[in-house]
Amino acid sequence: RARGGASRGSRTMARNEEKAMSLLNKWVTMKSEFAKGGGPQRRPYLATECDDLRQAERWRLDVIKEVSKGIGEIQNAGLGEHRIRDLNDQINKLLREKFHWQKRIRELGGPDYNAIEPRSFDADGRELPGGGGYKYFGAAKELPGVRELFQAEAPQRPRRTRAQIYKTITPDYYGYRDEDDEDLLRKEALAEKEAIEEADAQHQRLKRQRREIREKNGENPDDTEDSDEGEDDAAAMAAAAHSNFGEAMARASAASSTVAKAHVPVPSQDEVKQAILDHRKQQLLQQLGVAPSSDGGNEEKS
Q1: CA distance 272 to 90
Q2: Cys-Cys crosslink for 91: which of 70, 139, 157, 300, Cβ 3.0 to 4.6 Å?
Q3: Is-contact 300 290, C-beta < 8 A?
C-alpha cells in the first residue's frame, strides 16, 4: 500500500510539473511578444485595416496555415456530409480572405501573389472542380450532387445530312470501275479457279463414295459409270443452257436497242392534215344544211 500511494503521488507531481512548464512556456512566449512590441493580437476582420506590410504578410501566412489544416481535415470521408460541407465552406471563405490579404500586400508595395500564384490542383494533378470561385476539396468532391454537377458530358456526334453523306460517295462505291482494277481482276480469277477446283474435287469425292457403297452392297460398281457420265452430261448441258440463255438475253437486249419497225402503213403528216381538214369541212356543210354531192359538188336540200 505504501508503494502504491508513493507511485500515485509521483504521477500527480509529474502532472503538476507538466502543467507548470506549459504555463511557463506560455508566459515566456507572451513576454517575448510584448518585448517585440507586438503582443497578442487578433487578425483584422478587413484587410484594409492593416497598414503594415510585415503584419499583412504575417496574417496571410496565418490564413494559409488555417487553409492547410482544413484541407487536411476534409480528406476524412467519415466525418459526415454536414461536417464536410461546413469544412468546405470554411476553406472557401479562407481562400477569399487570402485573396484580399494578397491584394492588400500589393497595395502596400509588396509582391503580387495573386498574379504569380499557380492554380489549385488535387492530389491526382487535376484542377479542382468548381464554378464561380467556389472549389471542392477532398471528400467534398464525392458528395451527392457534386459529382454529377461537374461530370463532363460526352460530346455528341453531329448528325450528317444526306448531302454530306453523298458528297463522299464515288463510283467505286457502286462497283462501276471494278473491271478497270487489274489487281481485283487477278484476285477474282484466282478465286474462281480455286472455287472450280474445289467443286471438282468434291464431285470426284462423291463419285468415289458412291462407288464404295455399291461395292459394299455387292453391286457392280461399273454400272455407276453411266449414271456418273449422265450426271456429268447433265451438268454440261445445264452449263451450256445457261450460256445459251445469256447469249439469248444479250441478243434480245441488242434487238430492243434498235429502231422498232411497224407492220402496218403509217400515214404521213400531210395525209393527217388533209383528213382533219375534210372532217371539219363536212361538219360545216352539215351545219349549213348542204348535202355533199357524189361528184364532189354541193346540193341544197329542198
Answers
A1: 105
A2: 70
A3: yes
